[in-house]
């Protein structure tokens, strides 16, 4: 429409321009101008209508675009929710609990029905919902009971801590009372009994040390001597020592150990027949225990202290008694090394240079000598205090002189040849081999 109006307007303008060039303006020209003006007005009206229509179209397009964006956003939300749910479903399907399904599963259907009395047959979905409701209520009750038990436990722990604190304070108070009682004891000259210093460690003493300890304590109590006897050492180490001792004895007395000892004895017997000496690298017959363990001490020791007679405080001299389980002897040494001189020759001839246990002299192929570099010495009087009375190698009434020296030399050679061990081993072999000869 606008194109046709533009064409008509162009024709009128062309006609007017030609007529103006040929002849002056006439009424016809005025009519053409009037028609052109009317066409221009019509064109403006058409353009205005098109503009209004275009604006309406724009508004409609904008509204449609807004609606489309809203729908697109809703679609994206739905797709995101779908993806989220699918991811969560996969997580649930792939989830592997630390607890087995048997541990956290629902109670069996039969038990559920017996507990709830719901025996009616219903749809599986409805039944499962009821079972879940019952299970969550049951677990809530159990959780409540658990919390209650935890509170009871916390209260019990608090009560125990309070009692422990009370006992700790009581121990300190008892120690204070004990210190205060020491002064009173000194004033009234109360004797110390065995339980005053023994404690629970006395029961862990080996038998020789226990006999020595009990006899010394009894003597001090009976005669009122200015002396004290105590047990020193770690009770825990003593308990561990007693637990390891049976295992070591079983290992040393087993068939393998006996066979090894017999083999060593045979080797020494062969060496003796050849008239030679054992090789330096060979193991000594009857050694039984490695050299580094021969002098191993028991963790507990007994300390006998002589107190000053003139005053209640101060120690005149203290003697420490140790027990060597591998050698089965008691050693004595003074706490002050300068006082060791008073222990030697306490009785005539008792220098502590040799082990009074003749069984020790059979060790290391009869060449065993007690280590004199050690502070503790195996005095005979220490063995007697512990109830250890060993049979001497020679009679006590042996006359002195050249014959006694020759006898001592012969006994040393006798020990080196391990004659008793050879005889006993040979008898054992013959007795065990006799059935095979029949």
UniProtKB/TrEMBL annotation:
Entry coiled-coil feature ranges: 129-159
Biological process per Gene Ontology, one example term: mRNA export from nucleus
Signal peptide from the UniProt entry: none
One Gene Ontology molecular-function label: mRNA binding
Keywords from the named record: Coiled coil, Nucleus
A single cellular component GO annotation: THO complex part of transcription export complex
Stretch list, region Disordered: 237-259
Ranges of Basic and acidic residues composition bias in the record: 239-259
Localisation: Nucleus
Similarity comment: family membership: Belongs to the THOC5 family.
PANTHER family, per database record: FMS INTERACTING PROTEIN, THO COMPLEX SUBUNIT 5 HOMOLOG
Protein name (Swiss-Prot/TrEMBL): THO complex subunit 5
Gene transcribed to yield this protein: THOC5
